[in-house]
Structure formats: structure tokens, C-alpha cells
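User: Can you fold this complex?
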Amino acid sequence: MEREISGEILNIPEHVAVIMDGNGRWAKKRHLPRNFGHSEGAKAIERACENADELGIKYLTVYAFSTENWKRSVEEVTGIMNIFRKYLVDSIERSNRENMRVRIIGKREGLPEDIIEKMRNLENATAGNTGLQFTVAINYGGRDELTRAVKKIADKYKKNELELDDITEALISKNLDTWELPEPDLLIRTSGELRTSNFLPWQIAYTEFYFTDILWPDFDMENFIAAIRYYNKRERRFGGVR
Ligand code: IPE
Ligand code: IPE
Ligand code: MG
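Assistant: Here's the predicted assembly.
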């Protein structure tokens, strides 16, 4: 979709995925505890949703907590879980005001019961919203997601609900947590790391990557537009020739 943004015509990606990295370094630079960075990071998520909506992006998917992030200190993990608790509750009213639908992907198992409950409430409360389709990856790991998908498929095969030839790429996609979402057109990673850290490995096979040194709590509209400008310069061939 083309859109004029302050006099500039931009081709807006339908689905943008973001690895929100750099909260810890943002806090460290200010001699603050890491969890301050995570609180600022949560504010940056709200801003990113507003900006995505204003830019005409239909799907925004963000990586908030990985299956590997449990390796961090109890203090940091507890702080992050408390931020989720507040975010999941506060988001209901805000999302409904903005017609935003929120989905949560990742492994529910291993998360505190009350957080699972709050996730369900937020998803149910916003299920009818047709504006920005916002997805948060919490306790998400791409390998874990694929492992769970393989188990679901194997179970159906065992029960004779599937034949071997029914196992196609489309069937695998339909058994992932992202089954309702199109594949990301653009992946943004902040904070200067050049890796994907187990985020959406199946789904980003043909996604364009944009890396920026900006730390996540600082990510603003200007940075968002810079990412889209970069995306506009890429020629997507999907294996073909142009
Ligand atoms: C990203 O910021 C947020 C999470 C992974 C929860 P980090 O906490 O990884 O920040 P850095 O990479 O240490 O700066
Ligand atoms: C990726 O960031 C996970 C999230 C943004 C939630 P990390 O900071 O955990 O990734 P690594 O350790 O740099 O690969
Ligand atoms: Mg990091």
C-alpha cells in the first residue's frame, strides 16, 4: 500500500516484525537498573503501535520475551513479568479505544497462571477489533514453536486424521502460533545486533531485514520511517528473476 508521509510517497509493508533489543544498555548508559530500561521499553511499545497505525501498517509483531530470557537473574525476570502484568491489564482499554486487536504468541506453559489469565482476557476483549493487528511474543522461541507444531501434526497422524502427503508447508504454517498472520515483510532489530535470536525462523524466510543501532526505548516515528525507506529500496525477488 502506498502512502504519503510528510510529502514523501512510501510503500508501506503490510506486516512488520520487531526484535526490541537494547533496553538493558539504555538503562546502563544512564546508570539505572536494567528494569528501568524494560519500563521505558514498554512505553516504546505503545508508541510503536500508535506509529504503526498512523503509517498504515496492518500487522505489527514484537518480540518481548524469549524462551532463552529465563537465563537472566530472578530480579530481572520478575521485573519483566511485573511489567507484563501491568501492560496486559492496561492494554484492554487502550486497545479498544484504538480498535486494535492484540494476540499473544509463545509457549504458555511455564508462565505464571495469572499472566496466562491476563493474556486470555486481553485477547478475548480485543478479538473483534479490526484496526492494527498487534502480536506480542512472550516466552516465544521459534524452535519451541516448531517443536510444538510437529507434535500437533504427529498427534493427528497417529490418530489417522492426517495422511503423510497432507503434511505440506501450508499445513506446517497453519500449526504455528502465527497461523492467522501473513508472513512479515520487514523485520527490524534495534541495538546493533545482527542476528535473529530465535524469532520467527519459519516465517521470515523471505523477509527484508533492517538493523539499527538505536536502542529500543529510543525508537520513534523517525526511526520507523527510516526502516520503511530502507525497505522501499529493496527489490523482493522471492527466488525469481526481475
Ligand atoms: C530487550 O532488551 C528486552 C528483552 C530481551 C526482554 P535487553 O534486555 O536484551 O537489552 P540489552 O540487549 O541487554 O541491552
Ligand atoms: C532477543 O533479545 C529477545 C527479545 C528481544 C525479547 P536478546 O537480547 O535476548 O537476544 P541476544 O541474547 O542478544 O541474542
Ligand atoms: Mg538484548
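Residues 32 and 85 are 22 Å apart (CA to CA). The beta strands are 2-5, 8-11, 15-19, 59-66, 101-105, 133-140, 186-189, 208-211.
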